[in-house]
Design goal:
The chain is α+β, with helices and mostly antiparallel strands and 451 residues long. It is built from ten helices and 27 strands. A hairpin with a 7-residue loop joins strand 13 and strand 14.
């Protein structure tokens, strides 16, 4: 990554006296957005398809990205035409970065503002897309919206129109946009590679766990057919059993009123979120503080040596689970989570089974038996869960397998953590680079735009 210290700067700067603009190169102008852009008012064509403005700044036909997860209007009241090259601002999502230049012709809801430069050769929409997104991601648009109307983050064209914006020369705007297109694409490519490396590490961890909980640690052990598809072959001295032979009880809590934004502090009562097991391990910080009037209604405190299991969730998360290392007497279960309590006092039994429950093989069984009236929400019954088979070694092998797995998982998790930190640094660098370029903190030369 290039050092900002080595990048050229403008000779002189001046104070814009505008809070959100700050210092700008002396030769740059200032102009209200309404004198740079006007809002287009076009009726859609019969064959126009839906254009969507995504939070990552891409504005494209919806079909180019995804079609699920959207609510389609029965009647397209007020729909407008979007043209390739329009600067599009999503009034409701602008605060989160839904601002960009459309790469397609199509139509959109009236909540979008299609902005067109007033003068060709004066305003480059791509430069201003970078600039306004930078304002959004810095939190400025959200703070502006809160000042305009309570409990609303809408950023409509009139709000945009009144903003004073920097006005570099058209040539500078174009250089900045070209430079950022190249640099951000390079950074995104490196991030994608890092994400692929993370996925490979996760797959490797899955393979290690699957092998350990079905075949143990000895590569030369004699194997036999388990008779269970997801398990495959197991050591000759192992057995397969249904979960109900190991689990003493599947406990669940109740639905209570709790804060959506605050977690329970020490001494306060909290109820787990379903996200407590989203990463296929138990995360006690994922909880909600229970309102005082509801504390007497909570039931089923979180106990050490148990496994928390999601009984109702999205298809890829129903059955997600995690092992509880220590008691959490102030945390309780909601009605969407189970707590599996084991018959054996040997904690390694629960630890071993917790590894089995997060394997791809076991997850595949969960997905096959989960039911639900909605494609986005599935349930698994107690009976179906308890009747799933798992492989079981003799008690003398539990501790050896657990220790070996924990050592290997720790090594892989550390490698994943390093990649995650690198991705965060790349994202921070990208954000800083965009801000530095669009505000004139660095001067973009033709050579830089071509590199």
């Amino acid at each position: 990554m290039d050092s900002f210290f080595s990048m050229p700067k403008y000779e002189t700067y001046r104070n814009s006296n505008i809070q959100w603009v700050g210092e700008i190169p002396t030769k740059w102008g200032l102009e209200k957005a309404k004198w740079l852009f006007f809002k287009a008012e076009r009726k859609p064509l019969v064959d126009d398809e839906i254009v969507t403005c995504f939070r990552d700044g891409q504005v494209t036909l919806r079909k180019n990205r995804r079609i699920e997860g959207f609510t389609n209007a029965l009647k397209e009241h007020g729909y407008q035409r979007i043209c390739k090259g329009d600067l599009v601002i999503h009034a409701m999502d602008a605060f989160a970065g839904a601002i960009g230049v459309s790469d397609s012709d199509g139509k959109s809801t009236p909540v979008y503002a299609a902005c067109i430069p007033r003068k060709k050769g004066v305003v480059n929409s791509y430069y201003y897309a970078y600039y306004i997104r930078d304002l959004a991601l810095s939190g400025f648009i959200e703070s502006l919206a809160k000042g305009i109307r309570e409990r609303s983050t809408d950023f409509r064209f009139n709000d945009f129109a009144d903003l004073l914006l920097p006005l570099p020369s058209y040539e500078e705007q174009t250089l900045i946009a070209r430079f950022l297109d190249k640099k951000t694409a390079q950074i995104d490519n490196v991030i994608t590679i890092k994400e692929q490396e993370i996925n490979l590490l996760k797959e490797r961890k899955q393979i290690i766990i699957q092998k350990a909980v079905t075949q143990g640690l000895d590569p030369n052990v004699q194997l036999k057919n388990s008779g269970v598809d997801w398990i495959g072959k197991i050591p000759a001295h192992w057995v397969v059993v249904k979960l109900k032979t190991l689990i003493a009880a599947l406990e669940s809590g109740v639905s209570v009123n709790a804060s959506e934004s605050e977690a329970a502090n020490d001494g306060e009562v909290g109820v787990l979120k379903t996200s407590a097991v989203y990463k296929y391990c138990f995360d006690a910080t994922q909880n909600k503080k229970v309102f005082p009037v509801e504390t007497k209604r909570v039931s089923c405190p979180v106990k050490a040596g148990s496994i928390i299991i999601s009984r109702m969730n999205a298809p890829d998360l129903v059955g997600a689970s995690g092992y509880v290392e220590e008691d959490k007497p102030n945390l309780f279960l909601p009605d969407r989570l189970w707590q599996a309590r084991f018959k054996s006092e040997n904690k390694n039994v629960a630890k071993f089974i917790s590894k089995s429950l997060i394997t791809k093989g076991f997850r595949g069984v969960i997905e096959s038996v989960a039911t639900g009236s909605s494609p986005s929400m599935k349930n698994i019954s107690k009976g179906d869960l308890l009747n799933i088979y798992v492989a079981l070694p003799p008690e003398t092998e539990f501790e050896l397998i657990i220790k070996a797995l924990e050592k290997q998982e720790k090594s892989i998790n550390e490698a994943i953590s390093i990649q995650v930190q690198l991705i965060e640094k790349l994202k921070e660098y990208k954000t800083t680079l965009i801000n530095s370029a669009v505000t004139g903190k660095i001067k973009i030369t033709p050579e830089m735009a071509e590199q």
